[in-house]
């Protein structure tokens, strides 16, 4: 037993802990000791020495230690890398922002944190678990671009209180993965991060060999650049469209009576295909067809939640916060003149302006609490995506030093663009009136890094793929003067991005 072990055991007894800390990875007596254990930057350049150092630290502290190493990987294309991970036990994550400034692809699981239904403190739990793992982590090099290095990818369900059905099996109310392999494509180039969490029981040599083999396989497959191209044909079923229109009429009545100001009602379209639907093939089409949207895929087991959302919830970069108010929708025109005319009508449309204003007021209020200053333009502008145009107001703020990204996500979610206003009243009406389980639809999903920076989008224009089935979701903001037929038409337009990306024909 090494000396380090003995002193640790005494600490553990003092703390009242139980269990044996001895494992295969523990260093023998006399092996070099690191003075303090707070060194956060690794000097060693190769995987093995990092893991060995991690194993020593794990033994000394008797807790898991994260070892993370990032290097350039110039030949790798994000989508091919995603496709190459099809066999990584259902744990792929894809993220790209509309400017394509940061594209992140996570494959496999080095570590994860989850929380179950009814969890009131799910944001705090993720942050606490992550802070605990990051404390004492070994990272190399010290300085990596934004979006590289150790970070979590995942998200939250829309409503931990609402009914949970088997449709969303595998997607808990908070689910974040520290990817085993993370590809980061930024302006500055492409980077590959390898993450491992080593415990006192692990053998660093064995682990290093396993990681190297897995990496070789993924990189070889990605370099071949194969992305599955599928063109399934689908049977499509709209889930209770008439009931949905009636719910819209009822909600509008309640709003006119003053019971609430706004509620977002969504509906589901179920597709069944004869072929397995491949997430990589859907993402490829979204990438081609939706250049102005966030692209995301969150795979959990045999299901994958995929979409092209135009709506940022919040981005944090050091102390800068960026959020967007996106609500109010019109179709695109068939030629530039018609498109411009529709855009000016949208900017003047009273119902849509009010629908938008409710969102701006709430987001500004929510950000104010965590910020020292806020900037918000007086008037919305248009945000055009392939199938629709929206009213758009960007909001920026300077965060208080103690404002964390997930505390802002918690304050904002759900904004009145996804839930309604007042928030609690709208949520309880959604639970009662919608004939579906929203799962992760319209919920925050994104990434959070070791510095506390990251970005979250709202999971709209999206669908849940599982083998040969897909459930697509679309909703719209109901106001007192909402017309059920026009709102229904609006949801039809909002299904378009996913329908097109699925690339199928209706049978
Ligand atoms: C809830 C959705 O869209 C929201 C975002 C932009 C515009 C919206 C609207 O005009 O109703 C919705 O609030 C959806 O696409 O499922
Ligand atoms: Mg609308």
From TrEMBL:
GO terms for molecular function: isochorismate synthase activity; magnesium ion binding. Mg(2+) binds at residues 355, 490. InterPro entries: ADC_synthase (IPR005801), Chorismate_C (IPR015890), IsoChor_synthase (IPR004561), MenF (IPR034681). It holds the Pfam family Chorismate_bind. Its EC number is 5.4.4.2. One of its GO terms (biological process) is salicylic acid biosynthetic process. Pathway: Quinol/quinone metabolism; menaquinone biosynthesis; Quinol/quinone metabolism; 1,4-dihydroxy-2-naphthoate biosynthesis; 1,4-dihydroxy-2-naphthoate from chorismate: step 1/7. It catalyses: chorismate = isochorismate. Its cofactor is Mg(2+). It is an enzyme of class 5 (isomerase). Residues 241-494 form the Chorismate-utilising enzyme C-terminal domain. The active site is at residues 262, 311. Belongs to the isochorismate synthase family. PANTHER family: ISOCHORISMATE SYNTHASE ENTC (PTHR42839), ISOCHORISMATE SYNTHASE MENF (PTHR42839:SF1). This is Isochorismate synthase MenF.
């Amino acid at each position: 037993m090494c000396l380090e072990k003995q002193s640790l055991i005494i600490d553990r007894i003092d703390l009242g802990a139980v269990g044996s800390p001895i494992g295969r990875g523990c260093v023998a007596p006399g092996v070099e000791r690191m003075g303090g254990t707070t060194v956060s930057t690794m000097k060693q350049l190769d995987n093995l020495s990092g893991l060995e150092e991690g194993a020593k630290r794990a033994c000394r502290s008797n807790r898991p230690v994260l070892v993370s190493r990032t290097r350039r990987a110039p030949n790798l294309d994000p989508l091919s890398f995603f496709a190459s991970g099809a066999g990584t036990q259902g744990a792929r994550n894809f993220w790209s922002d509309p400017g394509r400034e940061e594209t992140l692809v996570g494959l496999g699981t080095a570590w994860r944190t989850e929380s179950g239904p009814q969890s009131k403190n799910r944001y705090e739990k993720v942050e606490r678990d992550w802070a605990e793992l990051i404390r004492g982590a070994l990272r190399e090099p010290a300085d990596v671009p934004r979006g590289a290095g150790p970070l979590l990818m995942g998200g939250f369900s829309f409503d931990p209180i609402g009914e949970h059905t088997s449709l969303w099996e595998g997607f808990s109310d908070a689910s974040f993965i520290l990817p085993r392999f993370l590809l980061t494509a930024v302006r500055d180039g492409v980077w590959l991060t390898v993450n491992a969490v080593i415990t006192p029981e692990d053998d660093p040599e064995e682990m290093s060999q396993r990681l190297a083999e897995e990496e070789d396989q993924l990189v070889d497959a990605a370099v071949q650049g194969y992305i599955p191209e599928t063109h399934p044909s689908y049977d499509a079923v709209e889930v209770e469209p008439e009931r949905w229109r009636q719910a819209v009429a009822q909600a509008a009545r309640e709003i006119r009576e003053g019971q609430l100001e706004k509620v977002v009602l969504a509906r589901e379209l179920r597709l069944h295909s004869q072929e397995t639907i491949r997430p990589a093939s859907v993402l490829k089409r979204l990438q081609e067809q939706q250049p102005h949207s966030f692209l995301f895929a969150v795979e959990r087991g045999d299901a994958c939640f995929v979409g092209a959302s135009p709506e940022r919830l919040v981005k944090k970069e050091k102390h800068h916060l960026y959020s967007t108010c996106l609500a109010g929708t019109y179709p695109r025109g068939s030629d530039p003149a018609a498109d411009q005319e529709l855009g000016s009508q949208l900017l003047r449309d009273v119902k849509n302006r009010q629908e938008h204003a409710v969102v701006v007021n709430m987001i500004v209020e929510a950000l104010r609490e965590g910020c020292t200053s806020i900037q918000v333009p007086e008037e919305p502008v248009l945000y055009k995506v392939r199938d629709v145009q929206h009213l758009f107001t960007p909001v920026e703020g300077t965060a208080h030093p103690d404002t964390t990204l997930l505390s802002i996500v918690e304050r904002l979610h759900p904004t009145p663009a996804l839930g309604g206003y007042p928030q609690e009243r709208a949520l309880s009406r959604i639970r009662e009136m919608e004939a579906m389980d929203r799962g992760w639809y319209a919920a925050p999903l994104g990434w959070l890094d070791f510095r506390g920076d990251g970005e979250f989008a709202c999971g709209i224009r999206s669908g849940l793929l599982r083998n040969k089935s897909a459930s697509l979701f679309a909703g719209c903001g109901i106001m007192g003067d909402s017309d059920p037929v026009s709102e229904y038409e609006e949801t039809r337009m909002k299904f378009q991005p996913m329908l097109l990306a699925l690339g199928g024909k209706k049978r």
